[in-house]
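User: I'm preparing a small set of examples for a lab meeting where we compare how different chains pack in three dimensions. I only have the primary sequence for this one, and I'd like the structure in token form so I can line it up with the others. Please keep the answer compact; I'll paste it straight into my notes.
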Amino acid sequence: MERTAFGKRLEQIRIEKKLSLLKMANLCGIAVGHYSTIEAGTRNLSYDTLLRIADGLRIPLSDLVRYDKAPEYPKYDDETNNLIALIAPLPTDARKCVLKIVQSFSDFLG
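Assistant: Understood. Below is the structure token output for the 110-residue chain.
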């Protein structure tokens, strides 16, 4: 897949998820300037960067680099996107802890 097609695919996914460039870059752990050049198709990507993007989006790398139309992913409201953006950069153990807290709170609310 050429760089511009991949960049358009990323932009499409970002817009479907209602994420700003900044939120998307933060989810992926990439500087916003670097991320914007990826979407513009002006930057070559390393495998590590591809993995960070797929992980930030919580989608398989194979879905990210497919040649056909980008798959549909859930669209979230702004509050949910903000919560995801806050939690995504945390280490795995911290995310698991936050998940337990949220599950307990959800159980409490019934």
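A couple of notes for your slides: The chain has a mean pLDDT of 86. Residues 70 and 98 are 30 Å apart (CA to CA).

User: Perfect, thanks.
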